[in-house]
Amino acid sequence: MKKKIKIIFALVILLLGIMVCNHSFATDNIASGTCGNNITWSLSSTGTLTITGDGSMSTSGCAWEEYKDQVKNVEFNGKITGIPQSAFKNNTNLETITLPSTVVSIGTSAFQGCTKLKTVEFPKSIMSIGDYAFYGCTSLQEVDLPEGLAYIRQCAFAGCTSLKKVTTKSIILSITDSAETISDTATICAYEYSNMFYYARYYGRKFTNLATNKTTQTTITPQSYLDALPKINVKAEGVTSHNAMSYHGATFQGYSPDFCNEKNETNETYKEIKAKVDELTQNCSTEKEKARKIYEWVAVNVKYQGYGATAKINVIYDIFKNLRGNCESYTMLTNYMLYLCGIPVGTVTNVSHEWSVAYVDGEWIYIDSTQGAFDFTRNRPNHLTFAYDGLVYAIDDPLEGGMVTGIAQPKNEIEKITSFTIPTNSYMKGIYLSSFNRISELKAEIGTIGEKFIRNNKEYCKTNNNQIIGRDTPFENPKEETKSDLPFTDVELEDWFYNAVEYTYKNKIISGYNETTFAPNDKLTRGMIVTMLYKMEGSPSNDGKSKFVDVKSDQYYAKAVKWAVEKDIVHGYNNSDKFGPNDYVLRQDLAGMLRNYARYKKKNTNVTTDLLKYSDYKNIDDYASKSMQWAVEKGVITGNANGTLAPKGNATRAEAAAMIQKYCQRVGR
Q: 3-class SS at 426?
């Protein structure tokens, strides 16, 4: 009997153990539920949220709302394809998450308010990140976005106050145009000319170029592109379009634009377009009125359909006849009609849109017939192409000026050209390789960007009239290398200031700091400029003693200061016994000194021109106004590529050399 009782007791103990064990296994998951068709979730007592199943999580909101403060990490089992709206919103103890390799999209506010989330591993499959997806994730420090990501929506990474770096290799990633999309604490790491590059520049963020690892920070605006366009000798040369842009190994390769200046008066469609232009503009008294009439007609009459367009005359004819197309079609028809009434035009694009830019009544304005906007600056350009001075230009960086993309003639006409001279044009910052690949012989002036292009891409030789010739086929004689005649290691043949430095050095007006250093980019001082003028005059003898306490007679500039003051070319500071020989010289003051020197030499210093065409003419101080007018009129000073004079910019030694060379050649010593 006792034995039987012992057995029963043992069985009871065993059963209780099993029950305790089973209870322990059952309560390890403190909660569970569903979050989509065939998708379940469970939360362990240790804070691990496990999501199991295939497809997109289809719930809107946090399915584990009651337990969200207990979630610390997330594991996925199966093939989850989408993280829905607010799925993990305000899971304030979530620290890390590795998204499955099958996830394609992250919904609106999916991780908003996850204040302890430090890291997110994004799979290559991710294509879009929704509005406010990671808003307020204040512990998130770095984000490495996959190359295949196509969209980042509004405020996706806003309020991430600890975010230091956002990295992506994607070139065409579309990012919502708002300063709030990415926290302003982050450095954008991407390739130059990618859409993330433009985003960084529009909002003044630090940008690290992945190709060079160089970090820069600057701010541009839509107005910056308008300011970068030429303001002098602007003519209606034709219609341009972005036919192609290419990236190779994450390196921007440039444009292959289409260009149209067709005016075939025998073509029936041309006659119809011209008649419509004349009808619309017949009562207009200004170019702006004409542009508005044409813009309004296109905006009202063209119907939006998914048909693209380029600047080819048959395409433009088709748009006019059918009155349909997308933003490219609206732009091409608007531009062609503006061109027919004599208004210069260009084409503007960003990641998802295209519109017009037109030069009317002396100013460049944006015109968007597709969206019904006239003379506005709300759209943010990435690229702008236009025809100027016989060439087609593109502006990718408004702070650096235009890159030559081609010749302002239709492609079928370019094919007939066998020899072409690249103009000497300070507006260029460079030339794209595809620009002149159809032309067998190119010519350019030594010292210009054209020379550099020829040396890099053609067989070449130097001629006797300061010109270089390049060909696709070898010359009869071996290539002649052109070597610098200067001893300075910091002045190269391709530098814009080479000829000026060569002139002033050989004429013993400006010397280097030493035998090998010219320092062209060093700021010009008052002591330097009076010494240059003194040497122009032949260095007349004097004892170098002056009334200025900061000019010692043993200094290199002492004799020059005494001579310049005596000849009323330059003076000390008002009511002071100081000259300031080491103070920097403004461009407007350099113009004044050269005009005073010209007056001393009995040259004509009267002025008849004004400076109204320069956008910053109001920045010139009253005392320097006449001097700047004289310098511009004589060609001693030329405007910058963006139509400014920069009167209060510090002059450099290279600029001084250039102005002195122009003075000597155009005014005379």
A: coil
379 contacts 350 by C-beta, under 8 angstroms: yes
| Degrees, nearest 5: CA angle 68-71-77 | 115
With 0-12 CB in 10 A as exposed, 13-18 as middle and 19+ as buried, what is 601? middle
Domain check: are 285 and 242 in the same one?
Answer: yes
Q: Are 454 and 433 in contact (CB under 8 A)?
A: no
> The pTM is what?
0.66
Which CATH number does the domain housing residue 231 bear?
Answer: 3.10.620
Q: Confirm whether 16 is domain-assigned.
A: no
Phi-psi region of 480 (alpha: psi -120 to 50; beta: other; left: phi over 0): beta
Residue 27 has pLDDT above 50, yes or no: no
Q: What is the pLDDT of residues 310-366, one digit of tens each?
A: 999 999 999 999 999 999 999 999 999 999 999 999 999 987 899 999 999 999 999
Whether 219 contacts 327, CB under 8 Å = no
Query: In 10 A of CB 178, how many CB atoms?
Result: 14
Residues 122 and 264 in one domain: no
Q: Do the strands 303-304 and 324-325 form a parallel or antiparallel pair, or are they unpaired?
A: parallel
C-alpha to C-alpha distance for 31 and 46, rounded to whole angstroms: 12
The residue type of 46 is: T
Q: How many CA atoms lie less than 13 Å away from 158 in the CB half-sphere?
A: 17
Match 């306490």 to its residue by tokens. 549
Same domain flag for 431 and 554: no
- Whether 7 is covered by a domain: the verdict is no
Query: Hey, what long-range contacts does 148-155 have (CB within 8 A, 24 or more apart)?
Result: 148/124, 149/122, 149/173, 150/174, 151/127, 151/175, 152/128, 152/176, 152/181, 152/182, 153/108, 153/128, 153/129, 153/181, 154/178, 154/180, 154/181, 155/131, 155/180, 155/181
DSSP state of 433: G
Alpha carbons within 13 angstroms on the beta-carbon side of residue 141 total 5
For residues 348 and 389, membership in a common domain is answered with: yes
The mean pLDDT of 31-37, rounded to a whole number, is 90
Does residue 364 sit in the same domain as residue 418?
no
- Domain limit, last residue, from 219, 235, 266: 219
Question: What pLDDT does residue 576 have?
Answer: 81
Q: Are 81 and 107 in contact (CB under 8 A)?
A: no
CA distance 270 to 332: 14
Mean pLDDT of 624-643: 84
Residue 278: partners with Cβ closer than 8 Å, 6 or more residues away: 341
Distance of alpha carbon 382 from alpha carbon 171, whole angstroms:
13
The mean pLDDT value for 590-594 works out to 93
In Å, the largest CA–CA distance within the chain is: 140
- Cα distance between residue 404 and residue 429, in whole Å: 8
365 is written with which tokens? 């304005």
Alpha helices in 363-431 (DSSP H): 411-414
Q: Are residues 448 and 535 in the same domain?
A: no
Tell me the residue range of the domain where 421 lies.
410-482
Q: How many domains does the chain have?
A: 4
Q: Are residues 97 and 134 in the same domain?
A: yes
Q: Tell me, yes or no, whether 5 lies in a domain.
A: no
Instruction: Kindly report the number of other CB atoms within 10 A of residue 73's CB atom.
Output: 15
pLDDT of 177 > 60? The answer is yes
Give the domain-ending residue among 355, 388, 408: 408
Q: Cα separation of 271 and 620, whole Å?
A: 49
Are 307 and 324 within 8 A, CB to CB? yes
Tens digits of residue pLDDT in 280-301: 999 999 999 999 999 999 999 9
Q: Is residue 444 domain-shared with residue 546, that is, in the same domain?
A: no
Q: What is the pLDDT of residue 20?
A: 42
How far is 299 from 23, CA to CA, in rounded Å?
A: 72
